[in-house]
Every structure is written in structure tokens, then in C-alpha cells.
Amino acid sequence: MHIKQVRFDRIFDVQERTGDFSFEDGGWPVYGVNANGLTIPREGATYAVAFAEAGNWEKVIGWRDLAVSNVEIKRSAWSLAIQTLPWQYMMIPVPFGISLALGGYWAAVPVAGLMLLAFGAFIYRAAWRNRQAAQALQEVHPAVPPAPGKRKPSRLAQSIWALAPILWK
Fold first, then answer.
1. For FRET with 109, which of 26, 74, 77, 153 sits at 20 to 30 Å CA-CA?
2. Distance CA 104, CA 90 (A)
3. Which pTM value belongs to this model?
């Protein structure tokens, strides 16, 4: 899990129904963020965002507006469990069919128990991940905002400025 502070300088392309929006952070645009399950941030706000993969806006776990202490998690453990039910229903016939064919009804009982155990472990893992993300987001303190108009130059700009004295003598 990765935590990053993001300032939503400008919010645009907002689709309230689907929860999609785009924004600018320090002059850099980010397009097509899906906030389904979260509130769309307000312009000018600074948020702490928890990612499952660093910088991947499709893998947002949750976020927190640093002006308030309320943490928003994108999906609860139960919603994740319900979301995977169709896949689990497709998986049920395979182990049950094999156990019934090879060992009868008494072989199917432990298989059912193992499948329920796996489903419970999935719910527990999702709840644990959400709890860890909420705790990490609560611990983030607002950073001191940069001076207006000042921004750290990109690596490309730093490289060009470093090579400028050599190239232009």
C-alpha cells in the first residue's frame, strides 16, 4: 500500500452518476479517475490517497481530506465479497463434482468446509486491508504547501539545466 498527498487544484470532466472525474495537481493533469464509492473531492483540497499500486488511480483503496479526519474507503469487505460471488458460484461445481465423483457425499463435506473457510479468509483479508488503509490515512499530517508559483522542476528540466553549461560554452 502506498500513501500519497494530492492537491486537487482543478477538478474537471465530472460525471456524477459514474463517479468519474479528472483533475490537475500542480499543473499536471490526471484523467479518468473513478471515485465510485467515494465522494468527488472539492477543488483546492489536499487529500491523502491510499493506492494498492503506487500512482495507479484505478487501484485506489481510499482517501482522506486532510482538512477533516473522515477516512473514505472505496469498497467495504462485504461489498468485495458480494462482488466476487458470481466467480465463486462458477467455481463451486468443479471441486464438488470431483469430490462427489471420487468419494461420495462424505468427501463433499470437507470440500464445502474448505470453500467456506477460503471465503471467510477472503473477507477477513479485505477487512484487514481496509483497516490498515484507514489507519495509515489517519496518521497522515498535512504537508506545508509550497510557495505560490514555485514548483519543483521535473527530472528532465533538472537534467537539461545540468547539461546546459557543457552544451552551450
1. 77
2. 21
3. 0.68
